[in-house]
C-alpha cells in the first residue's frame, strides 16, 4: 500500500468519523439527560437522507405525512392530559406546534418547485420536516414513562427503532438513494485529492460541535439540560421539568441525526434500514467514552471511522466485524480500570 | 381588622407510602411575611409533609390553598409557578456546575416567564451570602456543608419565592453557621417572604418563628405561637431539654 492510498483511506475514515462523532455526541447527550439509550438515532439519519433524495427528485417527502400524523397524535394526547386542568396557553401552544406548523409546512412544500430549489434550501426544508419529529417522538413514547428504569426505556427505544424502520419502508420503499454532494470541488494537496464534500462534512461537524459547546456552556437552556443530567430532582425544583428537558434533548438529537443524514447520503447509498448500522457505529464510539464523556466519544468516533476505512481496504468482508469487535477490548479495559460501585442513576 | 389571606393553607393533609399512612390530618397555615415552623422527632412526617406540599409525593387527601385559591393535586411545576420554593434536606445542588450556574438556574422558571432581572437578584443573593460571591466559579460539589446550605437557600431565593420551604436547614452544620442561616431567615421575613421551616433543632426554630406546630407520628400534636410553645412544659421536656443553656446562647 503506497502513501497516496493511505492518505485517501485516512481522509475517508476521518470523513465518516466526523459523522460518527456527531452521532456519538447525540447519544451521550440523550443518555445523560433522559437516561434513554437512543437506538432510533440512526433512523433520523436515514429519514433525513431519504427525505433529501425525495426532495431532490421533486416530490414531497413521505416524512411530511408522518409529521402530520405524529403532530395530530401529540395534540390529542395533550388534550387528554389537560382534560382536568384546562391550561389554555399550553393547549394553544400545543395546537400551534403540532397541528398548525405541520399544516403550514405541508402547504409550503406542495407549492414550492422542490427540484428547482437551491440545495441549501432543500436541506433546510428537510430539516424543517424531520427534526420536529424528535420532540414529538419523546412526547408520544417516552414522556409517559419518564420515571421508568433504564432497562424499560431501552426496551421502548428498541421497539421504536423497529417501528420507525417499518414506517421508513412504507414511505420510502425498499430502493436506496444517493444524494448530490454539497460541493463538487476538488482540492489538490500534494498527491492528495481532497473532495469538496469532505470539507463540507468536516466544517459542518466542527460547527455543530462548537455550537453544542456554546449551547451547553453558555445558554440558560443548555445549562438547564446539564442540570437535569446532574441532578434530576434539583432541576425539577427549579421548574425545569423532565418533560421540557426531554423534548429539548430529542430536538437536538433529531437535528444532529438529520444533519448526519444529509452529510452521509452523498457518501454512500442509504436505504430505509441503513440508519441502524451507522447509528450503531456512533454507539460504539459513545461506549468508548463510557456513554458519559464527550471528548472520549469524539476520539472513539474518529477511531471507528479510521478502523472502518482501513479494514475495508485490507479485509472488506470483515469491516463491520472489525469495527464492532473494537468494543470488546474497550469494555474489558473499562471494567479493569474502573474501581468502585457505579450509582444507579 | 381583617386577617390577611394566608400564603399557604393546608387542611387535613394525608400522605401515604404505598398503604402506610405517613401523615394524616395535618392542617397548617402560613400567613404572609411570617415564619412558621414544624418541629418534631425523626420520622414524625415532617419531610413527608413538605415533599407532598411541593408535589414530590402524591397527596392522598386534604385541601391545599395558595393565596386562598385551592390547588388540586400539587405538581412540582405548578407549585413553582405559584412562587413556592423548597430547599430539600438533601440540598439537591448541581454538584459539577459552578456556584454561579447553580444560582442562574434558580431563576430558570422566572426567565421562562419573561423576567430578565436575574443579574440583580443574584447580586442580592451575593450580598446575603458574601462567601458565595468569593467562590462564584467554584464547583458546587467542592463546597463545605455550610456553604452548600447557603447555596441551596440562595438558589431558591433566585426564584423570588413568596413562600420558602426549608427542610432541616441546620442539619449537620456547625452552631455558628446555623445561627447565620437563621438570622438570614429573619431578614427574609422582613423582606416579606413567608417561610415554612421544618426543623429538628426545636430551640433555634422556635426562637425565630412566629408560630409553631409539633408533629408526632404523622399528626399535629400541639400548635400555637412560638413564644407559647417555647414555654410549654411538654415541649421543653421533649424537645428543648432543661440544661442546654449553651445551645440557647448560640441560637440567640
Describe this entry's structure for a reader.
The complex is a heterodimer of chains A (345) and B (252). With 345 residues, chain A is an all-alpha fold. Chain A has helices spanning 3-34, 41-56, 63-81, 88-111, 119-130, 133-142, 150-172, 196-218, 220-230, 232-237, 242-264, 275-288, 294-314, 319-325, 327-337; strands at residues 186-189, 192-195. A two-stranded antiparallel sheet of chain A has the order 1-2. In chain A, strand 1 (186-189) and strand 2 (192-195) form a beta hairpin. The radius of gyration of chain A is 21 Å and the shape is globular. Chain B has 2 domains: 8-83 and 161-249, P-loop containing nucleotide triphosphate hydrolases (Rossmann fold); 93-158, no CATH class. Chain B has helices at 46-54, 76-81, 99-106, 108-112, 118-128, 130-134, 145-157, 175-190, 202-208, 226-230, 233-240, 245-251; strands at 8-17, 20-30, 35-39, 59-66, 69-71, 84-87, 163-167, 194-199, 211-216, 219-225. A 6-stranded mixed beta sheet of chain B has the order 6-7-8-3-9-10, with helices on both faces. Chain B has a 4-stranded antiparallel beta sheet with strand order 2-1-4-5, covered by helices on one side. In chain B, helix 8 (175-190) links the parallel strand 7 and strand 8. In chain B, helix 3 (99-106) runs parallel beside helix 7. Chain B starts with 7 loop residues before the first strand and ends with a helix. The mean pLDDT of chain B is 90. At the A-B interface, helix 9 and helix 10 of A face helix 2, helix 3 and helix 4 of B.
Amino acid at each position: 500500500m503506497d502513501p497516496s492510498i493511505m492518505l485517501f483511506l485516512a481522509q475517508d475514515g476521518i470523513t465518516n468519523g466526523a459523522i460518527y462523532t456527531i452521532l456519538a455526541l447525540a447519544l451521550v447527550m440523550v443518555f445523560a439527560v433522559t437516561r434513554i439509550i437512543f437506538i432510533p438515532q440512526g433512523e433520523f439519519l436515514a429519514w433525513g437522507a431519504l427525505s433529501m433524495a425525495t426532495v431532490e427528485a421533486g416530490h414531497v417527502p413521505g416524512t411530511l405525512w408522518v409529521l402530520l400524523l405524529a403532530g395530530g397524535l401529540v395534540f390529542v394526547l395533550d388534550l387528554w392530559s389537560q382534560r382536568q386542568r384546562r391550561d389554555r396557553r399550553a393547549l394553544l401552544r400545543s395546537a400551534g406546534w403540532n397541528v398548525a406548523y405541520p399544516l403550514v409546512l405541508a402547504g409550503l412544500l406542495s407549492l414550492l418547485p422542490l427540484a428547482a430549489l437551491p440545495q441549501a434550501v432543500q436541506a433546510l426544508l428537510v430539516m424543517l420536516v424531520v427534526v420536529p419529529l424528535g420532540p414529538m417522538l419523546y412526547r408520544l413514547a417516552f414522556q409517559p414513562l419518564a420515571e421508568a428504569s433504564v432497562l424499560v426505556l431501552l426496551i421502548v427505544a428498541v421497539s421504536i427503532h423497529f417501528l420507525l424502520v417499518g414506517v421508513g419502508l412504507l414511505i420510502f420503499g425498499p430502493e436506496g438513494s444517493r444524494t448530490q454532494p454539497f460541493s463538487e470541488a476538488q482540492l489538490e494537496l500534494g498527491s492528495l485529492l481532497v473532495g469538496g464534500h469532505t470539507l463540507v462534512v468536516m466544517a459542518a461537524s466542527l460547527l455543530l460541535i462548537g455550537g453544542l459547546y456554546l449551547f451547553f456552556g453558555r445558554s440558560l437552556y443548555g445549562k438547564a439540560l446539564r442540570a437535569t443530567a446532574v441532578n434530576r430532582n434539583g432541576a425539577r425544583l427549579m421548574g425545569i421539568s423532565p418533560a421540557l428537558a426531554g423534548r429539548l434533548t430529542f430536538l437536538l438529537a433529531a437535528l444532529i441525526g438529520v444533519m448526519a443524514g444529509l452529510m452521509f447520503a452523498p457518501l454512500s447509498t442509504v436505504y430505509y434500514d441503513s440508519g441502524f448500522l451507522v447509528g450503531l457505529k456512533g454507539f460504539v464510539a459513545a461506549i468508548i467514552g463510557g456513554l458519559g464523556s464527550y471528548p472520549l466519544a469524539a476520539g472513539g468516533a474518529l477511531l471507528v471511522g479510521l478502523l472502518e476505512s482501513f479494514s475495508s481496504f485490507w479485509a472488506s468482508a470483515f469491516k463491520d466485524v472489525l469495527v464492532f469487535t473494537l468494543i470488546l477490548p474497550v469494555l474489558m479495559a473499562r471494567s479493569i480500570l474502573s474501581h468502585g460501585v457505579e450509582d444507579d442513576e | 381588622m381583617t386577617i390577611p389571606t394566608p400564603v399557604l393553607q393546608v387542611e387535613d393533609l394525608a400522605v401515604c407510602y404505598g398503604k402506610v399512612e405517613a401523615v394524616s390530618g395535618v392542617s397548617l397555615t402560613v400567613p404572609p411575611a411570617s415564619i412558621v415552623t414544624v418541629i418534631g422527632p425523626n420520622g414524625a412526617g415532617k419531610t413527608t409533609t413538605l415533599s407532598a406540599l411541593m408535589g414530590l409525593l402524591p397527596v392522598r387527601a386534604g385541601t391545599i390553598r395558595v393565596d386562598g385559591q385551592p390547588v388540586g393535586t400539587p405538581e412540582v411545576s405548578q407549585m413553582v409557578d405559584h412562587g413556592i420554593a423548597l430547599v430539600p434536606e438533601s440540598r439537591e445542588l448541581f454538584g459539577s456546575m459552578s456556584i454561579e450556574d447553580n444560582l442562574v438556574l434558580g431563576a430558570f422558571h422566572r426567565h421562562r416567564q419573561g423576567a430578565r432581572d436575574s443579574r440583580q437578584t443574584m447580586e442580592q443573593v451575593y450580598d446575603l451570602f458574601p462567601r458565595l460571591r468569593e467562590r462564584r466559579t467554584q464547583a458546587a460539589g467542592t463546597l463545605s456543608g455550610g456553604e452548600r446550605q447557603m447555596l441551596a437557600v440562595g438558589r431558591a431565593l433566585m426564584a423570588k419565592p413568596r413562600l420558602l420551604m426549608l427542610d432541616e436547614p441546620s442539619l449537620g452544620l456547625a452552631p455558628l453557621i446555623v445561627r447565620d442561616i437563621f438570622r438570614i431567615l429573619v431578614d427574609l421575613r422582613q423582606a416579606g417572604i413567608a417561610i415554612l421551616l421544618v426543623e429538628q433543632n426545636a430551640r433555634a426554630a422556635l426562637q425565630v418563628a412566629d408560630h409553631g406546630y409539633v408533629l408526632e407520628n404523622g399528626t399535629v400534636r400541639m400548635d400555637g405561637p412560638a413564644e407559647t410553645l417555647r414555654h410549654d412544659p411538654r415541649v421543653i421536656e421533649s424537645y428543648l431539654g432543661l440544661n442546654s443553656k449553651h445551645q440557647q446562647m448560640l441560637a440567640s
